[in-house]
Amino acid sequence: MTTTESGNTNKTMDICEIKAYLPHRYPLLLVDRVLRYEENKSITAIKNVTVNEEFFNGHFPHKPVMPGVLMIEAMAQTAALLSFKSMGIKPDENSVVYFVGIDNARFKRPVGPGDQLKMDVEIVRVSRGIWKYKAVGSVDGQTAVEADLMCTIRSSTDASQPAGQ
Length: 165
Prior knowledge:
Elements: E1 2-3, E2 9-10, H1 15-21, E3 33-38, E4 42-48, H2 68-87, E5 95-107, E6 116-127, E7 130-139, E8 142-155, E9 158-162
Antiparallel strand pairs: 1-2, 3-4, 4-6, 5-8, 6-7, 7-8, 8-9
EC number: 4.2.1.59
Family: Belongs to the thioester dehydratase family. FabZ subfamily.
Subcellular location: Cytoplasm
């Protein structure tokens, strides 16, 4: 967390803090840095896409393109970070974030090696343990992917119960 000259606090997260909040690890950890977040509101994070990504070996060797499902997953991981920060909790080894729904997913441009996928996620609402977000991923100011995401946080020991209960 840094403070600007005007006294505003910019809340950020580096990779070490991200790994403390997300259980994902290589090759499925898809958030490299959080540029800013505001609890209960929004978050902006980045994924640096490199030619060394495992998925480029098969998708596609002649024209590497980041799979759309992984772009959606990167935005969902960003949303999970915002949810945990908004709740003021750090997940334990039993906390799991599950997709409940993905609506209105649209892919507007390919993402490939050398691109930086910037993910802007905002909370639309939280109701009965279901978090709804509006997510947009862009590269160089151009929308690459957008979707409405719905997730819930559960305990892996009892997937029918919210985490911590």
